Target: Hemagglutinin
Amino acid sequence: MKEKSSTMKKKVGNTRAVINDVGKQLTALRGIFDRELTSQHCYTIDERSKILIRDSEKLNVPFTSNEWDRITGRNEGNKTDNELWTKNDPLGRKMHVL
Model:
């Protein structure tokens, strides 16, 4: 009986280790995927912003965050660059706002 219990505990331990390993691999894969999406999104916003800034300079019109609202689809209102580009996450770190 004790041998069966010991064998069962080993199997459960091995199963947990496999599940934990798969979880770590999925987390790493998601991180790679998220970075790729973020990179593409930043590139798109950067390209659009270059066009808007170039056009606003030609027309001698100041570039405000209202243009960012149109680019990003957000309604942030007129904010400073720092307010527009960063926010605090729950852990207190500064993050880029896309």
In short: Residues 23 and 29 are 10 Å apart (CA to CA). The longest strand covers residues 86-88. Strands lie at 86-88, 94-96. The longest helix spans residues 2-59.
